[in-house]
Fold:
Amino acid sequence: MLILAFDTATDVATSALVRDGTVLGERRSRALSVLADADELLREAGMRPGDVDAIAVGTGPGSFTGLRMGLAYARSLALALDVGVAGVSTLDALAAGAPGALPVIDARRREVFALVDGEPAVLAPADLEVEPGALCVGDGAVRYRDLLEEKGAEIPPDASELHVPRARFHAALARDFGDAERIEPLYLRIPDAVKSLA
Structure:
């Protein structure tokens, strides 16, 4: 099965082309470039859009705008290519890239998205419970490095690939491909724009 996977939930968007578990190509860019990246990945692999069998898309949590863009891309491509889509948590993809690590995404507003008791949550970095020696990965771990290291966490260097929700892991985790309309973003709080209107 040829899977086109991408995630636009964080500042670094990723895309990958994966056939039967083998990564044929992978890109890092911005959310605005994901479709161009997908086209380049297909060309470099000597394939065409019609060769894609399924799409895996990151569902967050993360940037409201980034998530909406990624889901719109997935829905448009699925409709145009007549393929199924599977949503994959960005936190789960980060964790898959660093088995045993605690994924921590910068949620802005002095908060992070993380897995708490196996469930996605939004909380202040100071409230994140970290076991001494625990590995923390993600842009939230980088941003709040000092605080998390004071709690005993270990954090890879800022430039480490472990901090990026690589699309290859979305493809590996994707299950139950189906109608793109059923894929929903994982919002853990009200978007800023909605709060300002209230």
Observations:
- The chain has a mean pLDDT of 95.
- The first strand starts at residue 2 and ends at 7.
- Strands lie at 2-7, 13-19, 22-29, 54-58, 84-88, 102-108, 111-116, 119-123, 136-137.
